[in-house]
Amino acid sequence: MEKFLLRNIENPNSTDINEYIKAGGYKALLKAVEMKPADIVSEVRKSGLRGRGGAGFPTGMKWAFASADPKKPRYMLCNADEGEPGTFKDRPILEKNPHLLIEGMIISGYALEAEYGYIYIRGEYPAAKDILDAAIKQAHEKGYLGDNVSGKGVRFHLYVHQGAGAYICGEETALIESLEGKRGQPRIKPPFPVNEGFLSKPTIINNVETLANIPYIIEIGADAYAEIGSPDCPGPKLYSVSGHVKRPGVYELPMGITLREIIYDHCGGIRGDKKLKAVIPGGISTPILPADAIDCPMDFVNMPKHGSMLGSGAVMVFDETVDLVKVCYRAIKFFEHESCGKCTPCREGVGWMRAILERISGGSGTAEDIDLLIEVSNNITGKTFCPLGDGAAMVVQNFVKNFRSEFEEKIH
Amino acid sequence: MLSENAVKEIGLIRNKYHDAQSSLLPALYVVQKEHGWLSPEALKEVGEILNVPKAEVKGVSTFYAMFRHRPIGRHLIQLCTNVACMIMGSESLLNILKERYGLEPNGTTGDGRFSLVVMECIGACGTAPAMLVDTDFHDNLTEERIVNILEKYK
Amino acid sequence: MPKDIIIELTINGKNIKAEQGMTILQAAQKNGIYIPNMCYDRRLKPYGGCRLCVVELEGQKRLFAACSTPAEDGMIVHTETPKLAKARKTVLELLLVHHPLDCPICDKAGECDLQDLAFKYGPSQSRFTAERKHDPERVDAPIVERNPNRCILCGKCVRVCAEHQGVGAINLIGRGFKTKVSPAFEETLNCEFCGQCIDACPVGALGAKPYRFRSRVWYMDEYEAICPYCGCGCTTNLSLREGRIIRARGKDGIGINEGNLCGKGRFGFDYIYSENRITTPMIKKDGKLVPVSWEEALQYVAKRLEDIKGKYGPSAIGAIGSQRCTIEDNYMLQKFMREVVGTDNIDSVARFGYAKAQKALEKAYDVDFMPIKWKAPLNADFMLVVESDITSTLPVWGLNFIKAKNDGATLVVADVKETKLARNSTQWLRIKPGSGTALLNGMMKVIIDGGLYDKDKTSAVPNFDALTAGLKEFTPQAVSNITGISEDAIISLARSYAYPGKRLIALTSNISENTKSMNTILAAANLAILMGDDPDTVQVPAEFSNTAGMWMSGVRPLSGGKDVYDMLYEPGAVKALYIMGENPIVTFQDAARVEKTLKGLELLIVQDIFLKEAARIADVVLPACSWAEKEGTFMSATGNIQKTPKLVAETGQSVPDWKIFRNLARVMNKDLGLKDITAIRAAIADMIVSGETKDIRRSFNPASYEVMETVSEEYPMFLVTSNILQHSGALSVLSKNLDSVVSDAYLQVNTKDAKKHGIHDDAFVRVKSKRGEVYLKAMLSDEVPEGTVFAPLHFAHAKVNALTYPSLNGGLPLVAVSIEAA
To answer: Which of A192, A397, C119, C781 is the most exposed place for a label (fewest CB within 10 A)?
Structure first.
């Protein structure tokens, strides 16, 4: 497959605007500003693009909701708070191909009549922040940003806003709270950000990878774009692969490719030719799959049918040597650290699960602990304010469901 | 007291937003960059500049793991220990830091050279284990490599 | 969200109606259906944190939080099912992970939501308690105590403080499992001490220190009363044990305040137990007040009044009523003076306060009394507050300004001081002290010159030409010079004010203030009339609990009698003065002059609850009952007439004021014909009508800008005086609770001025004006700008009123002072 999202990143000067333009960059923007905003929205709708942050919500639909709200100003936000453990797919775009994101944001801002854009980037990516700042400066100088984008009288100002270490801010309403200088606790929905978002104004939030797809859709047209990947989830997808594979890294592959193909064909199989034990296919919150369940097409529609989720497309591969109880404990420790503390089940329940896992993992668990762990996780499920607590409960439930014997072995 | 430069920089940041409190996180970064940490006095001052109550400034700043509320050493090691880094050996790196520098998580070396913070995922899972030293990124760490890298930070 | 669309849904099999936009919880509450909750508060945005309000929706598998799920037409909701009981039980178990079971020594026990819900749904404790917090209890702050271990992190206190009170003194600190509620740096809590967080707390994590370990809740009886402090007329719920009031609290939805209380209302009730209470009648004998019997005292008063009347005629006798005494008390005072003594020399301190507003509004609209509208701010799109600390004068009404602003209205505050509303405003214009009148005139000039006013409606209003002529000199440039803000700021304020929408101008008219005059209120009225707005665009609250009622009951000269200015500042104008519930030496400006007048009287009768400055120099002192020791009626600033009950026994031999006049009249062989409170009420029913009794007739009245004193080389700074939030007149200083918050007068000095004069925080400063000098403790603060100092007037011994002077009409009584380190 021809690369688009990662096009040109091998070029050592890929972040330079002139190199980007040389490789065909900002052409989509020039094409877009000749179109009517509403036509861009319907083109994106037609493309079938789904949000790449993890939930897979149709981007065109989100855009249409925002366009329907007359309140102004509108804000265009980029979610670059890539915090889901295992996920590093947006990093190559942010660090090596920043102009693709910027171009995507300008087109989106124009399409949605949003004059202000913010890229909310996680604090853990300080280098990417500087790269984006420099790229934005260049785009200003070239006239792609500012009060008169490309001489077409379009107004778009873009800023980078740095997060400071809070996984929850990847949740869009928590991200908005954080952008407003508040504690990053998620908001009640409705109202949805498309109606009342940043500073109570209509706000569109899209993931880095989603926005990076926009210039491609404009460039090749919605029809051609829809031909790529799965019929229900078209387009190229970035998969970040980590753990015990021979060639970990970020891969641009079509939607719907199987987990097995990713691990064995693209990443060269298991390191040291050991046996595969388990895979987490879409970042730490997605259900862990045993080794025999990897013939599943990696997209938003098919993964749930195979007992897991596409999530952020962050594939974590575990070979036979891995202590999965310890992995589960470490994962829950992460959720405890990241729980915002707003709702009771997540705040108190995840800490309790961590305490039980700490016991089991440390060899002092009792025979009742596994059932208690499941009971506590069930008491969290469906009762939390946002998906974070649910995610933590789901991790525990799937680890125990698929690898119960490993837990039992720890209890003497 | 914030420096004149910091106050000026916060003023410039303020212009990027339609609302003063939105500039709070960037303003805290300005302070942290200058002082290494966020002292109560600095938090109060930021609050006064942005017309945000000091309890709000403190509440916000303590929500985010990357803001420091105690003085730290000259160099801050932020070592990832999340799952991908853990299975690739970050625990042995923690041991090295303890053995070699007497450095424990949330601690500072006696000479004030290093402080250590254990991080959740820093997005380097493909090249795990990884760490940030100040704002420099280092990955594919081994017991030997981490020592060599740290020796460059005096 | 359109509120007028009514939807129908079913909750627990019952069909109910709700407004579109309501949540399921709101719809249920409106229909009397209880859904458990711990983080919801009607005053605040839904939070969705506790997860106890989960309900089942038919056709949906998962549970929904009722507090944050919109009610929809046709929805079928179940609030009590086995599934929900189990869900709530699990949430409660999780809350009990951290919450200690120290109920036996918790003041909240018996009215604790967590206790009640655990009782209903179980469990008695959590299976996981190993990692409980062990934070020390904090009882170091005045009045408010904190017990962080009991906190369940519902965040209500934090949100009430920031969102509703506009303060933000506490916050959630940290994240997740380790979050705790605290002031910024774990320092001693230092806030406005409204105590709203205490009522909001569903458990015993916050408490009122004066109530600490005083009683189990089930040993107390609770009664509703009307708060004695300001013109809000809040309902306060008083808890009594063995006949003594031991706590006051607000209760959700009760009274005009709907459960809100300020610090005075919540903690200030204890003034009635002050050791300064007068317990017996006293007569001055050989220069000393000595206790006498009621009979002797009344005989003495009667004789002396008769003597003076005989010697000089009835017009040599005057009386001063009280804004804090009930309508019945004030009515009987004036009836006694008019019918028994035969004098019309009756007035009150309101002459220099609310009467100025009354006079201005009478000129502008030809009305006698114009009550404020409680919800006026909530209906406004643009609110302008001019040199008025609304949240100190009427703290609970002031909350509506903050709410309106939070809901999207524009709030512009023009004030030299950084008031709470200034901090919570859309725009704060720091104008020079006393320049508000000029600002309003300047706005009108811009509006008229720009043709932005309502030409149709103003064409019928008399005096338009006089108005425009009077505004001639108020060009943006001139007003910029007077106010110290830019011409652009004035022009843009005028233009945005003229933008279509519902406008509101709020001003206070208190005796304690010296930056406004009658003309300021006239200017505000002119602006409202100019824009074609309704009279309720101008909101000027009556200051105290019964300022309005006192006014309506005839405590003012009605047929050419002397007013309080004559009686107190013109020595010899009267020979005898009967003062009820007032201490003029503290509350009136230019205290030395007032004291001199009082000392020169042949007879001074003081009928009060405290033995204070005026009482000490009186010839006769009569002990009156305090609020809560007598039944009575107040009329609030909104014109609400509200009864407040007798709840506790009289102190010593004190008697209700109204009864003293009844008895005195009898001693003077005259029966006022009203033997009890019922008879008095019947007599005054016609007289007391709550405002807007006749048609409005608008007219323009040019409002000039006259400053009575300017700064000079000798006196280079302006002294601004007003109320402060924790105190109210000279009454609240007798509350030990309030005294623990602010116990002394102070002088706010800008840090730069302090540096210039070598003044240190908390050190004494000598403040001098043309009239006198006083020593005050410095409080360095940027709430005041350079060149301006501020002092509150409540504290008798500080004698700040030695520096000030009175102004009856349009002149601004600005005070020029000098300061130096003492």
So the answer is: C119
- The residue ranges of chain A whose pLDDT is under 70 are 1
- pLDDT tens digits for range B110-139: 999 999 999 999 999 999 999 999 999 999
Question: Within a domain: residue C269?
Answer: yes
C381 plus C523 within the same structural domain? yes
> Best interface-test mutation with A: which of B125, B131, B135, B138 has the largest number of A CBs within 10 A?
B125
What pLDDT, in 10s, does the model give residues A73-103?
999 999 999 999 999 999 999 999 999 999 9
Question: Can you tell me the mean pLDDT for C581-601?
Answer: 94
Helix axes C436-449, C464-471, angle to 10 degrees: 110
Note whether A330 contacts B: Cβ–Cβ < 8 A: yes
CATH of A17-226, one of 3.40.50.11540, 3.40.50.1100, 3.30.420.270, 1.20.1250.20: 3.40.50.11540
pLDDT confidence bin for C391, thresholds 50/70/90 = very high
At residue C726, the pLDDT reads 84
Task: Round the average pLDDT of chain C to a whole number and report it.
Answer: 95
Does one domain contain both C521 and C569?
A: no
Is residue C98 in some structural domain? no
Q: Which one is the CATH code of A324-410: 3.90.550.10, 3.20.20.80, 1.20.1250.20, 1.20.1440.230?
A: 1.20.1440.230
- Kindly indicate whether the domain formed by A236-319 is annotated with CATH number 2.10.109.10: no
Task: Give the domain-ending residue among C539, C573, C595.
Answer: C539
From residue B147, alpha-carbon distances to B59, B70, B108, B116 in Å are 36, 25, 16, 14
Substitution target in A347, A381, A386 with the highest count of C β-carbons within 10 Å is A347
CA distance C484 to chain B (A): 22
Query: Which chain B residues have a beta carbon less than 8 Å from that of A342?
Result: none
Q: Which residue has the tokens 């409960």?
A: A393
Domain count, chain C: 5
Q: How far apart are CA A312 and CA A300, in angstroms?
A: 10
Would the pLDDT of C810 be above 90? no
Q: What is the pLDDT of residues C420-455, one digit of tens each?
A: 999 999 999 999 999 999 999 999 999 999 999 999
C-alpha to C-alpha distance for C157 and C136, rounded to whole angstroms: 19
Q: Does C260 share its domain with C290?
A: no
As a whole number of angstroms, the distance between CA A189 and CA A173 comes to 9
Instruction: Give the pLDDT confidence score for residue C100 in this predicted structure.
Output: 94
No. of H helices and E strands in chain C? 28, 32
Is residue C148 within 8 A of residue C178, CB to CB? The reply is no
Identify the domain boundary among C80, C108, C141: C80
C256 close contact with A: CB closer than 8 A:
no
Q: Do B59 and C423 touch (CB under 8 A)?
A: no
Burial A254-286 (b: 16+ CB within 10 A, else e): bbbbbbeebbbebbebbeeeeebbbbbbbbbbb
Q: Give yes or no for residue C686 having a pLDDT over 80.
A: no
| Domain presence at residue C392 | yes
Domain boundaries, chain A: 17-226, 236-319, 324-410
| Interface pTM, i.e. ipTM | 0.96
* Cβ contacts of A266 on chain B, cutoff 8 Å: none
Give the tokens for residue B120: 């959740």
Tokens standing for residue C174: 């940290």
Specify the residue for token string 């002459």. C351
Residue C287: CB partners within 8 Å, gap ≥ 6? none
If asked whether residues C616 and C751 sit together in one domain, one would say: no
Question: Model's pTM, two decimal places?
Answer: 0.95
C-alpha to C-alpha distance for C175 and B54, rounded to whole angstroms: 17
What local confidence, expressed as pLDDT, does residue C1 receive?
45
Q: What is the pLDDT of residues C69-105, one digit of tens each?
A: 999 999 999 999 999 999 999 999 999 999 999 999 9
